[in-house]
Specification:
- This protein is an alpha/beta fold.
- It has one domain (24-383).
- It has 7 helices and 12 strands.
- A 6-stranded mixed beta sheet has the order 2-8-7-6-4-5. It has a two-stranded parallel sheet with strand order 1-3.
- Helix 3 crosses helix 5 (252-308).
- The longest helix has 57 residues, at 252-308.
- The relative contact order is 0.18.
């Protein structure tokens, strides 16, 4: 039994999401079709998916999936887009755009996590950018293009055995936007793309894994967490992401590792609440920027169509570059709603043990790193073995 006592974590006040309502449909496929213990090639969904139709979120029918079959998911923060050709922007606008891209990364990651959790196909679905995982499935990706008119994301998903579930690029292009003025409230326009990602992952889980394979996967996830926490002690139990053997059920050290994993999940829950709060804080500015950027992109496309018809002169400058004066002006309008660069605004987390307390402060990344030091200290105090 751990001697540290119960961890008490400060709670965040959660704001309303402000997202648009979505239609949903039932998704009841639950027929494992591969008993070999490995995912079939078709499960990878390697081809790009152009999402131009309405895609509704597939919900698991209540009571269909046993609780033991619900896999835990970690979403690594989607890597933000680095748009080329932005040197023409003033420093203020460059900083604002960089901050907005970081906010976009958190916002899209949180929306995807929320959709997967709400679908009912999964256990815990958390955005875990930096911490020890312990999850059964890990999702990562990169935002390759986002200009308000098109969203293109590369998504990869691997389970704790290293098996690839998904390696695919998703693209959605919106129809032309009707002209309008003012700062009316706008909603997130790319729900169909994120629904498609969530549905594809649910389909792989339903069609490719039996209950027995899920049980083996969860054992592997626990051992992977133990090996990340204390490689010298638990790496020999695994080879090439395969479980060779399990520790004895009454092994006191391994029981301690399982309790530490529960503490880690409690911390991740608190960080999830903080990240959701942050995503909701930045959502109005980000969605407004996305809407203005869409308008700007349409005008820029029209500008180049006029140039192709000979109605507009692009006027190359002395360096042979195109004159982006109009481009700069349009993006300046798109960013004008941001009074200051958006930064990671997170609340400190208070952690209390029976014999001490700690406060985790700083950015999300810094709090994760402080927490990992505490986990390692827990392990050493409990076992007497340096992690």
């Amino acid at each position: 039994m751990l001697r540290h006592g119960r961890i008490l974590l400060a709670a965040w006040l959660l704001l309303g999401a402000g997202c648009s309502m979505e239609t949903v449909r039932w998704f009841t496929t639950c027929t494992p079709c591969n008993n070999s213990g490995a995912l079939t090639e078709g499960a990878l969904y390697a081809r790009d998916r152009n999402v131009q139709e309405q895609v509704t979120l597939a919900l698991a029918k209540p009571g269909l999936l046993p609780e033991d079959d619900l896999l835990d998911v970690d979403i690594r923060l989607l890597r933000p887009m680095r748009p080329p050709g932005m040197d023409f922007l003033d420093p203020f606008f460059k900083d604002s755009l960089g901050s907005l891209r970081q906010a976009e990364s958190y916002y899209l990651s949180e929306v995807l996590a929320n959709k997967m959790q709400r679908s009912g196909h999964w256990g815990r679905v958390l955005v875990n950018p930096y911490g020890l995982s312990g999850a059964d499935l890990e999702i990562s990706g990169r935002i390759e293009q986002s200009d308000g008119q098109m969203l293109r994301i590369r998504i990869e998903a691997r389970d704790s055995t290293g098996a690839s579930w998904l390696a695919k690029r998703y693209v959605q292009t919106l129809p032309p936007l009707a002209p309008r003025s003012g700062l009316e409230e706008v909603s997130f326009p790319f729900n169909d793309l994120l629904n498609a990602i969530a549905n594809d992952l649910a389909r792989v889980r339903a069609e490719e894994l039996s209950s027995r394979e899920i049980a083996l996967l969860r054992n592997n996830s626990l051992l992977k967490f133990a090996a990340e926490l204390a490689p010298a002690a638990y790496a020999p139990y695994r080879q090439d992401n395969t479980v060779l053997r399990l520790p004895a059920q009454d092994d006191p050290v391994f029981l301690g590792v399982q309790e530490i994993r529960v503490y880690n999940e409690t911390f991740l829950d608190a960080m999830q609440a903080g990240q959701e709060f942050y995503a909701r804080q930045v959502a109005p500015d980000y969605l407004r920027f996305l809407d203005r950027s869409r308008q700007a992109t349409q005008q820029i496309n029209d500008y180049y169509l006029e140039a192709a018809d000979g109605r507009t002169n692009l006027n190359p400058d002395s360096k042979g570059n195109m004159n982006f004066g109009r481009y700069k002006g349009l993006y300046s309008v798109a960013l004008a709603d941001v009074n200051q660069p958006i930064e990671e605004r997170v609340t400190p987390v208070s952690v209390e043990f029976s014999d001490r307390s700690a406060e985790l402060t700083g950015t999300i990344e810094e709090q994760f790193r402080q927490w990992q030091v505490i986990l390692q200290d827990m392990y050493e105090t409990e076992t007497g073995i340096a992690p």
